[in-house]
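Person: I keep going back and forth on a fold encoding question. Show me how you would write down a chain together with its backbone fold. Please set it down just below, with no commentary around it:
Helper:
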Amino acid sequence: MTGDEIRAKFLAFFEEKGHQIIPSSSLIPHGDPTLLLTTAGMVQFKPYFLGQASPPASRLTSCQKCFRTTDIESVGDSTHLTFFEMLGNFSVGDYFKSGAIDFAWEFITGRLGIPEEKLWATVYLDDDEAFRLWLEKGVPSGRIVRLGAADNFWGPAGDSGPCGPCSEIHYDFGKEAGCGKPDCNPSCKCGRFCEIWNLVFMQYNQAKDGTRTSLASPNIDTGMGLERITAIMQGANTVYKTDIFASLLKKASEISGRTYGKNEDDDRAMRVVSEHGRAVAFLIADGVMPSNEGRGYVLRRLLRRGVLFGRRLGLDKPFLVDMSAAAIEQKGAVYPELVKRQGFILDVVRVEEARFAETLNTGLELLDEIMGHADTQQSRRIDGDAAFKLYDTYGFPVEITCEIASSRGFGVDLEGFDKAMERQREKARAAHRFGGGDKEGQIEAEFEPTHFVGYSELEKATRITGIVAGNAEAKTVGEGDKVALVLEDTPFYAEMGGQVGDTGVIVTENASFIVTNTVRLAGNITLHQGYVAEGSLAVGDVVTAEVDAERRADIARNHTATHLLHVALRKVLGEHVQQRGSLVEPSRLRFDFSHLSPLTPDELSRIQDIVNADVRRNHQVYDHEMSYKEAVAAGAIAIFDEKYGDVVRVLSVGRPAISVELCGGTHVTASGEIGLFQIVSESSVGSGLRRIEAVTGREAASMAASSIATLVSLGRLLDASPDGVAEKVQALIASRDAGIRKAEALERDMALKDVSALLAQAADIDGVRLLAARVIASRPETLRDMADALRDKLGSSVVLLGAVVDDKPYFVATVTPDLVNKGCHAGNIIKQVAGVTGGGGGGKPGMAQGGGKDVSKLDEAIASVYGLLKQK
């Protein structure tokens, strides 16, 4: 029975038992930044178990794509995997222990035909009910084992969530496969037993502090690894000997020229490249991009570890892309997203593999050198700074450094590595401590939290609760003082989440304070930075805070536009696109996102059209607060690693919503207020990261008006209508190019005519014919043509020509093959000659070129070649 047949049989069995088949969710947990990757089948059902959302049915079943990072270094042995498929059946307030055990026993013994005498069960220490249910199934008490929390209590997926005791079904390979001890049972790690199915009885909800409360209704969550049960059914002692990995190992053998099963070192390397090649294809298909943090770092680790083990198979050219292609071919029918995104997946693997290959050899040599140092030899420990250099300069994830070092008997100073990493981060981090005036520093004062009312009000009567002058608290301030005010309530939005802070005024009857920026301190304290324009202010004064309404409106247009842009990017480029940063100002917006390649003009046009279409539809924009868990259950997009409170603000555009994101910024009330969206630029900001800058509203209208005015002016100059300007410009460019080509040809013809006159300047230097001359040429190409012609006419010779090109000295040298054999080298000649003018150059022994800076030394440089040849 193949793996595909087991998957189909499992889903069909549970569908027959009244379960609704649910497709696998993404490896990126939808809207749940608390999880790095999907690690179990129940992750997508977590909101149902917690009562935060209604399930489509009370009985569910799935085959879930899963990824666990804890086993990356172990992959290569005969058992461990990072990516795997988890078969599962789930009950949301329907059946409980009895039903779960009944279904599992019937499927394993009845549908798969595994002999009952080969099966053992484990239960939690005090779970008498589960013990009794297994007895009723005919499992002898001697094959039912009670185990503690480490083995038979299932914790939450993440740092909180549903949990409960569990019961596991184990396959017994027989006494001959184990340790031989009479008390050997599934808790023994001797290899005799293999866990094949875990039945989790979800009875509790665990909070972040570890406390547990009973769920309103208990649920069932089960998980059976497809790869593991396939090995049992195919009589294999390892998942790598099943049909699931057969085609991948075959591809690894074809690529490397090695035969699997003949050499354990080769086998280990082939298992690594097969497993990692498969895993990276699934990660990229679900939107993970290589980076130095979070999920992207996991992907990068796998890619680079795969490349490293490929080198052990003698593979010094790109190969991992072929392994991923083989995985897509094998799994594409079951997971169509692999086929749909095949081109993109392979491009990401190809680029990342090539990038690491550029530094791999140098990095390995440096690691050998480090381990060879006397100090390292004595301590048997690689210094943290050295490990960081391998990471920072040569792209070695520290885990790979540890793995290589461990294989040769060395440790790694991870604490020192972390300190070096933190030093770099500290350099990169802008010191973000805000004072009242020009100085930056820690404010030595405590204030009450500021209540923000700016979502609904732009003007608010309030009270001054604090004044910061420099970095210290003040009681009063006068005209001209640069300070920061703290208010009881404020309509001013503080810089946060990529959106700049508000500006405006704070006034009394006798005083005026100009707000130039608004920032936020810990503890929800808002600082209104600026200066006293008139009068004086004191703590306790009643004031009116007024936000610059026009500026706020411009910011709101740009912020809502980033949400629409995010939607459009995912529609055009794919669901791998994720926000990686943003800046929202009054005059423009900037949006950074994950994507591998530059966007084409057609893609940019389509993205812009989609955004403007949504602007014209005038979608209503809704904001409402709810618990974080409710928000993610409702499908709101959250940014991984962003810290959210228990209550979050959800921003939705349209009904039904076309965009739902967690966002604390200020927005328009309807998308039509954006007016117009215009992309200004698209560029790279790092590996796998792109940036779009755009304008909206007044700025976009101004840009459009300016562009039209420019087009009309060009039309007048060219005597063409605006529609005909492009055609007229193309004709002018073609005419100009033809003129340039004609001038270049004329210059070349004239230069070649001068060749005969230059021949007379050839001199004999110790038996070598040398022609060194200053000529007139406006292009390096002309100089090269002249040098070639002179060499051909002179025969055995050295030719050096110099000219002023673009107001700088330029040189070309040629040496005939017979003189190259005698030690003459055109590259060396150019280096020394160009050096006289403050420049440099180089090239091959027979031809080289270079340039300089000081035109006044051109003749001196040409003359220096005579002495150079005499030395030779």
Remarks:
- The radius of gyration is 36 Å.
- The CA atoms of residues 27 and 38 lie 5 Å apart.
- The longest strand covers residues 193-206.
